[in-house]
Amino acid sequence: MIRPQTCPICEKELPANLTLESPLFPFCSERCQNVDLLRWAEGRYQIAEPLQPHHLQDLDFEDEGEYSDGQ
Ligand SMILES: [Zn+2]
Questions:
Q1: Which of 7, 39, 55, 71 has the most CB within a 10 Å radius?
Q2: What's phi and psi for 58, nearest 5 deg?
Q3: How far is the CA of 3 from the centre of ligand 1 (A)?
Q4: What is the whole-number distance in angstroms between the Cα of residue 49 and the centre of ligand 1?
Q5: Residue 23: its pLDDT value, please?
Q6: pTM of the predicted model, to two decimals?
Q7: Is 7 exposed, middle or buried (0-12, 13-18, 19+ CB in 10 A)?
Q8: Going by C-beta distance under 8 Å and a sequence separation of 6 or more, which residues neighbour residue 4?
Q9: Residue 27 clears pLDDT 70, i.e. is over it
Q10: What is the pLDDT of residues 48-70, one digit of tens each?
Q11: How confident is the model at residue 17 (pLDDT cuts 50, 70, 90)?
Q12: 3-class SS at 6?
């Protein structure tokens, strides 16, 4: 019932000695781990770049705040 775990980056089967306890898991090597980190970081930058709708909403709230500035 043991299915070979594969690396999510290169899709190679992980070495048998690489287990959940390994700091590399679930990657087959440090290189693949770094690739995943880079992809993740790039995804974050892409999200951070576009104008966020929150900004526009905040401006709207500021306008309405003039009418209901109880506290
Ligand atoms: Zn790999």
A1: 7
A2: -60, -40
A3: 17
A4: 29
A5: 92
A6: 0.55
A7: buried
A8: 13, 14
A9: yes
A10: 666 656 655 666 655 655 565 65
A11: confident
A12: strand
DSSP 49: S
How many Å apart are CA 55 and CA 58, to the nearest integer?
A: 5
Q: Which two tokens stand for residue 1?
A: 């019932």
Return the SS3 of 48. helix
Please give the distance, rounded to the nearest whole angstrom, from the Cα atom of residue 24 to the centre of ligand 1: 10
CA of 46 to the centre of ligand 1 (A): 24
How remote is the CA of residue 47 from the centroid of ligand 1, in Å?
26
Mean pLDDT value of segment 2-14:
88
The pLDDT tens digits for 34-51 are 999 999 988 877 766 666
